[in-house]
Amino acid sequence: MSDLLYGEIENDLRASVREVLGDLAPWASVLAGTEKDEPYDAALWRAIAVQLGCAGLPVPEELGGAGATWRETAVVMEELGRSAAPVPFLGSAVIATAALLAAGERELLPRLAAGERIAVLAVPFSTAPYAVPVTVEAAGGALTGEVTGVADGMAADVLLVPAGDGLYAVDAADARRTAVTSLDMTRRLADLAFSAAPARRVAEGDGAVRAALRTGAAMLASEQLGLAERCLDDTVAYVKTRYQFGRPIGSYQGLKHRLADLWTSVTQARAVARHAASCAAAGDEDTPIAVAVAQAHCSAVALKAAEECVQMHGGIGFTWEHPAHLFLKRAKADSIALGTPDRHRAALAALVDLPPA
Predict the structure, then answer these.
(1) What's the confidence (pLDDT) of residue 164?
(2) What pTM, to 2 d.p., does this model score?
């Protein structure tokens, strides 16, 4: 049985990350950044990845990392979700790092752990861990093909591309990258095209890619948890102070019931997200089941929490000047990322030998 409680180190890490995000990523700054052309907040990335050392949390110390686990990384993901922080942490410090760890790659991993380089797994952001799409061909150490909808593709220095018989590392400068309109403006997408791009194979087969997507889905559940908690906290604070007909709107029974139901769902989301993170950290054989459960539940909870945040804030909640729309867009994009809830429920049924209806 995994321990779902947060340890002292995890709580200290949370406090440090939250303090940095409070200073560098208040919602007004995040909102302002969505109107700029930069693919991510470079100053915030340096603070999180380099100064706090969060980019190397799951990387062994002999490779320049912190020698921690995915549990600590999950805590960082929770805080980044609370802020809808515009940094490529999920893509580089989680998914790409997990792929390289699974591949046993030792050349690129230390630079990712130090925050010196940003790597991204070149698959559509909607790719679930259960089937790896391959649209790029490998021939003579060069790649040719296209990949669409890659999260943080414009931010990457290195692209990890599933192609042919394995996973290849490509310098981002050797690919044609095109920014595409993204629903979540804090995590932007890009289309990638390769034309005889020089590449180095870092893993054979698709095992490393599947492991990376599975770990990414586990950590995404923690991001969704943090986002849901933020929406719930902001909404509760607002209904306590917003008066209508001479009384705070939070005193009305209808809103009380909705918020109580949401609190219950968020509490359940915390349990399944923590379990998925613990399983990923321990390399537990139940990790695929834990991840499927976490994604099937947390995606829906984060989206519901964001919708309630918008609605219960009333008129102000629908405006551009309020952060609610940032959380709603992140929640909706996350609900599609790394597999929809339906996809994970179907996978869960197969994992537990439940026959289809």
Answers:
(1) 84
(2) 0.95
